[in-house]
Specification:
Rossmann fold; MBL; 2 domains; six-stranded mixed sheet; RibonucZ/Hydroxyglut_hydro; Putative mRNA 3-end processing factor; Metallo-B-lactamas; alpha/beta; seven-stranded mixed sheet
């Protein structure tokens, strides 16, 4: 059993840095070599000299950052091994959105698993989460709080079926909007989905990568004004916030965050992250010797696993 290196991954201003391979994981500032877990803007940014990621993540980044040269991207399939410096690497499905990946890194006989954002709930619009064992679990802790439990998304989406009114549905354009479309198609099949113009091309990108079951239409202003219509108009957050005075529609925002449910006409708790119990279940499956937390508050996990597993927040030990 290899010795865990506390400085294997450290927090720098650019992002999480691995000096043993001289690369960054999900850096926010431009670097020479970036491993990108998925295409959301708080993990995937432009300006890097070289980006390693899955093909789907590269496709979304090319769309969003179209000035980034195409040769910047080196793509790998899930489980395809590659090496950077002396670090052996594989991408493992994370279940967060299409193309999202956990990053399994092995060095000196120790396996370090960086989850990126991940979820355990079923989602027909992306690859399901896969669990692998690792010595160090580097987990997001967005909702790592014993007081947070995500409800069944099928039960939540059925709330829309019970409201025969036009609905203005706020959602993140990439990942969440496509998942909501699939959930509404399946559980509220009578509801017609209209898409904001900024979301429409992302749905089409999903279709080009095999997610072909989604039923939707481009937004048409007249359709939302038809008497008796009960269309659902999916819009990005900025548009949703600008329509705070919208009349004759129900305002709903799909999120796991409680503060985003305030002042809306109903609550819709649909999250693409793990909740407290999910993380505990994941720890059992990964069976780590240590847990390092990122993207959130790891204090509850540290307290829960006291005297069982070492838990620390990545960044507590800085570069030397």
């Amino acid at each position: 059993m290899g010795k865990i290196l506390p400085d294997f991954l450290i927090k720098r201003p650019e992002g999480y840095y691995c000096r043993y391979g001289d690369f960054y994981v999900d850096p926010l500032l431009p670097v020479n070599l970036a491993l990108v877990s998925h295409a959301h803007g708080d993990h995937a940014t432009p300006g890097h000299r070289e980006i390693c990621c899955t093909a789907a993540t590269a496709a979304f980044m090319r769309y969003r950052y179209n000035k980034q040269p195409a040769h910047t991207y080196t793509t790998f399939s899930y489980h395809q091994p590659f090496t950077i410096g002396s670090v052996a690497i594989r991408f493992i499905p994370a279940g967060h959105m299409l193309g999202s990946a956990q990053i399994l890194m092995e060095y000196g006989g120790v396996r370090y698993l960086y989850t990126g954002d991940y979820k355990m709930q079923a989602d027909s619009t992306c690859e399901p989460l896969e669990m692998v064992e690792a010595d160090v679990l580097i987990t997001e802790s967005t909702f790592a709080d014993p007081g947070i439990s995500h409800p069944d998304p099928a039960v939540e989406i059925m709330k829309l079926k019970e409201k025969p009114h036009p609905i203005l549905l706020g959602a993140y354009a990439l990942g969440k909007a496509q998942r909501l479309t699939a959930l509404i198609n399946e559980h509220c099949p009578s509801r017609r989905i209209l898409l904001h113009h900024s979301i429409l091309p992302l749905h089409r990108l999903y279709e080009s990568m095999g997610i072909t079951q989604l039923r939707y239409e481009p937004y048409n202003r007249k359709m939302m004004k038809v008497d008796g219509a009960d269309h659902i108009y999916i819009v990005p957050p900025m548009t949703f916030n600008s329509y705070y005075r919208a009349t004759n529609v129900l305002r709903v925002f799909a999120s796991g965050w409680k503060h985003l449910q305030h002042r809306n006409d109903m609550e819709l708790y649909i999250s693409d992250h793990v909740d407290w119990q999910d993380i505990l279940d994941y720890v059992v499956g990964v069976n780590p010797r240590e847990i390092w937390t990122v993207h959130g508050n790891g204090s509850h996990l540290r307290e829960h696993f006291a005297d069982q597993i070492v838990v620390r927040t990545l960044g507590e030990l800085q570069s030397m």
